Amino acid sequence: MATRALRQTLRQSGINARRWLRGSEAVFILLAMLTGAAAGIATLAQGWLAHELQHLLYGVTINRLSALGSIHHPWRLLALPLGGLVLVGLGRLQARRARPPIDVVEANALHGGRVPPIDTALIAAQTLVSNGCGASVGLEATYAQMGGGIGSLLGQWLKLRRADLRTLVGAGAGAGVGAAFGAPLAGAFYAFEIVIGTYSTAAVAPVIAATLAAVVLMRQLGAEPYLIATTANRAITLVDYACYAGLGLLSALVGIAIMRLVTFAERGLQWATRASRWRPLLGGLLLMPIAWASPQTLSAGHGALHLDLVLHPPIAFLLVVLGLKIAASVISLASGYRGGLFFASLFLGSLLGQAYGEIVNLNPWGLAIDPNDAALVGMAGLAVSIVGGPMTLALLMLETTHDFALMGVVLTAALLSSLVTREAFGYSFSTWRLHVRGSDIRSPRDIGWMLSLNAGRMMRRDWVAVPALASVAQFRQAVPLGSASKAILTDEQGHYHGIVPTAAAYAPALDPQGAVAALARLADSTLNPFTGIKETLRAFDAAMADELAVVDPEGRVVGVLSEKHARRRYLEEIEAAQRQMFGEG
User: Where along the chain do its domains lie?
Assistant: First the structure.
């Protein structure tokens, strides 16, 4: 008895503690800070593991892999197909599961912030192997995944509400990215723009608290913030704005081309290998000659970015490396290497910007822009096109350069690039990849509630059924006038044969012995129990009906749904989402 009483007391104490955590904004902020600190430690650990792997495979010490002048021992490039072999093994483990792993963007958009821990571990392992062996992908994807996964795990354990769980996932992901660059504001806006999908007033404090906690902890542990040297004492003129606006437009076109190329190459490799799981091995072999031609194509490109900004290479070199880096990134992702294009897009943008600046300076009118400034603007412009989040990239440039004077042209290029990409393409790289897989995601905005709000959830089950072979007289006997406005015709197996308005069956001119089926309407217009709310509303508009039958895949009636009720439920869910956004839910 004493043991049972103790267990009940502990269980009740746990329930009370969870209620307290979920009900206090101050405690939620502390929870976000804990998540941010854990994300910072995870970021530091993953960066160290990737560097140690590169040291083992390539002999890299304090330098960055992409900053190597040349590969002195060509046999070291066998690390690329070796990494592909490891990914083949990890792919076999993944194939045992019914679905691909869920990343933080998909989790927040479709699953209310729920990320299975095994998915986080699998994505982290695949990304570390891919980056460590030298494939042209960055670690920012796993930084965000690990941080968001930690937030999701804590939130699920504490049984947080859907909106709070999504916020904690975004805070963890933003903390991971912010810690990688030593940029808390960029990390916070990464959470808002890339993972959460809205600038929620209720999420501002916990998200910024998480990114600050991650960055402060990283600095306490000795990690240096990521800094880029810029030109001092410049005057930004109207002509400069026009030039950099052109760079923003060019960045959008290049970004769209890269995203299209990844899908084109992926389908090509799937066709060539008959969708074999050995694609990463083939990709590693294809990457070897590219890496031999230019080691700057290896890994994400951190070292190469700084090297090129210092050395100011000629236009031909910049364009060649740009082309090789695009090819390496496309092959890496298309062949199954795991990772993101966050830093790779920054490096590509710096190459594009430097080349653009050098070409502009060849004009005969004496107009000149600084190639280093053009590189920074190109970084923001191309990364916005591929990754999304104009404010994220603008603040990243500000926090990594400490250059306020350049922010005007950076924002100009970033916003133009974002606008053109949205209008001409409509996706960021992460949402484009999900779209190719068949998902209807265009942003991390929460649409999971719309998928769960389907016809089966909204329908009523108290409909009036009449045999499809009944006469008008039999219908009148089964459905007295005033008892129901409509009746559903079904056969002996319950299959649907249309809807008959009661008033139509009581028309004086009707022959009582005539078949009531002649009065049936909407025989070809039905809803499936799993039809989502948006498709449901479109079905009502197309049928011009105020009520539709819900039938199962075998054609049997399982319920009835009215347009009025569907629209009311839709508006109620929208209002609930808005209340959560403003912290009123």
Answer: 2-220, 238-445, 450-575
Asked if residues 46 and 143 have their Cβ atoms less than 8 Å apart, the reply is yes
CATH number of 238-445: 1.10.3080.10
pLDDT at 521: 87
Q: What is the pLDDT of residues 122-137, one digit of tens each?
A: 999 999 999 999 999 9
Report whether pLDDT(159) > 90. Answer: no
Q: State the residue for tokens 């910072």.
A: 40
How far apart are alpha carbons 319 and 354 in whole angstroms?
A: 9
* Whole-angstrom distance, CA of residue 305 vs CA of residue 64: 10
Average pLDDT over every residue of 199-218? 90
Taking CA atoms, 459 is separated from 12, 278, 547, 549, 573, in Å, by 37, 47, 10, 9, 16
> Which tokens go with 307?
């090297």
Note the pLDDT of residue 2. 61
Secondary structure (3-state) at 471: strand
**Cα–Cα distance between 464 and 307 in angstroms, integer?**
76
Beta bridge partners of 562: 547
List the structure tokens of 8: 């009940």
Query: What amino acid is encoded at 398 in this protein?
Result: L
Q: Are 573 and 450 in contact (CB under 8 A)?
A: yes
**Helix (H) or strand (E) run with residue 301 in it:** none
Distance CA 71, CA 58 (A): 9
Query: Which tokens is 264 given?
Result: 């084109």
Helix ranges (H only) for 133-203 are: 140-157, 162-181, 184-190
Domains 2-220 and 238-445 share a fold: yes
Architecture of domain 2-220: Orthogonal Bundle (1.10)
> With contact defined as beta carbons under 8 Å apart, do 434 and 105 qualify?
yes
Please give the single-letter amino acid code of residue 501: P
| Per-residue 3-state assignment (H helix, E strand, C coil) for 490-502 | ECCCCEEEEEEEH
The CATH-assigned architecture of domain 450-575 is Roll (3.10)
Alpha-carbon distances, residue 102 vs 112, 122, 157 (angstroms): 12, 10, 18
Tell me how far CA of residue 118 lies from CA of 125, 176, 542, in angstroms.
Answer: 11, 18, 43
Q: Which residues pair with 500 in a beta bridge?
A: 487
- Please, which residues have CB within 8 angstroms of residue 181's CB and are 6 or more apart in sequence? 187, 225, 226, 396, 399, 400
301 in Cβ contact with 340 (< 8 Å): no
Residue type, 186: A
